């Protein structure tokens, strides 16, 4: 699993837990469950009765007369907004390796580089030569040290996807790994089926 996906899932999980916990606290206080169930909430627990508020007037205006309060409050809000915007842009940005150094990452070939588009075109052309594939396009993602190959292929009618996938792994993927020196080159394939007119049987 990609590092970015792991971070996204952790952040979404934490946000979900916070929202779920906050919702349960609000419901418990709104339906007066503490009094109905004879439960004693901890000291300082918020929203224990239907008429309770999250932030009291005294708490809300406690530091408003201090000179540092408004700059700190604005700075915190700006930081939160910037972090949220950075996270959003990080989801939209897809990194590309640019130029790949040929050879093993630990010992690249001196001065030998390959454009990512050239590698993608060669990979797609090699894939189109495989039986069962009508059209294919390929592009590279990731970084120069850790590239990832992504292939979109259109399957011909009456083709076994498992056999085509195995042929791609044994053929174009193996040759791409050998030619670039990246023996651990990740490979993702997206299959589509070609549209064809229904055939009439008699």
Mind sketching the topology for me?
Blueprint: H1 3-30, H2 33-36, H3 57-60, H4 69-92, E1 99-104, E2 107-115, H5 116-128, E3 133-142, E4 147-155, H6 161-180, E5 187-193
Parallel strand pairs: 4-5
Antiparallel strand pairs: 1-2, 3-4
Helix pairs in contact: 5-6
Protein architecture, described:
- The structure is a single chain.
- The chain is α+β, with helices and mostly antiparallel strands.
- The protein folds into three domains: 1-54, no CATH class; 63-93; 112-193, Dihydrodipicolinate Reductase, domain 2.
- It has six helices and five strands.
- The strands form two sheets. The protein has a three-stranded mixed β-sheet.
- Strand 3 and strand 4 form a beta hairpin.
- Helix 5 (116-128) packs antiparallel against helix 6 (161-180).
- The longest helix is centred in the first third of the chain and has 28 residues, at 3-30.
- Residues 193-202 have a biased composition (Basic residues).
- It comes from Streptomyces roseus.
- This is Alkaline shock response membrane anchor protein AmaP.
